[in-house]
Amino acid sequence: MHRQIPVCSTFCSELSFLYIDLDIEIENHSKKTISEIFEQDGEDYFRKLESKILLDIINKKKKFVLATGGGTPCFNDNMNLILNNGISIFLDTSLDLIIERVSRNTKRPMFQNKNVKEIINDLYNKRKIYYRKSNFIVADNNRKEV
Fold first, then answer.
1. What percent of the chain has pLDDT over 90?
2. What's the chain's average pLDDT?
3. From CA 74, how far away is CA 41, in angstroms rounded?
C-alpha cells in the first residue's frame, strides 16, 4: 500500500527530508486500514481524521514531503492549510493512467464493485479546482510506475 516513488525517495534522502504518506499515518494512528475506516466509521469521520493528522504533521514535522490522497485537498480547507504551510505540487496525470492504476488497487473503498472510469471522471472534474491551486503543476505526469 505504500505509495513511495523512487524519485521522491531519492530526492528526500539526498536533501534529508522525511517522506510521509498521509494514508499510512492515518492507518498507524487509527490502527485500521483506510477501507476499514470507511466501512466502520464512514467518509465524514475519515475526512475529519485526515484533516487532524494533516495538521499534526504540519505542526510537528520539519523538512518533509507529504503524499496525500486525491481527496485531501478538497475537504475541510486542507488545500489552504497546505498552501499556507508549504509548497504544493499537483502531478497532473492522464485520466486513463489514473483509471488503470486505481483498477489495479483492490484496497480503495470508493471504487469497489463500481464503474471506476465514471467515478474517476466525476471526481477529477469536481476536484481539479482544488488541484489547480497548487504552487506547481507537473503537466502530463504519465511516467510508468517502477
1. 58
2. 86
3. 19
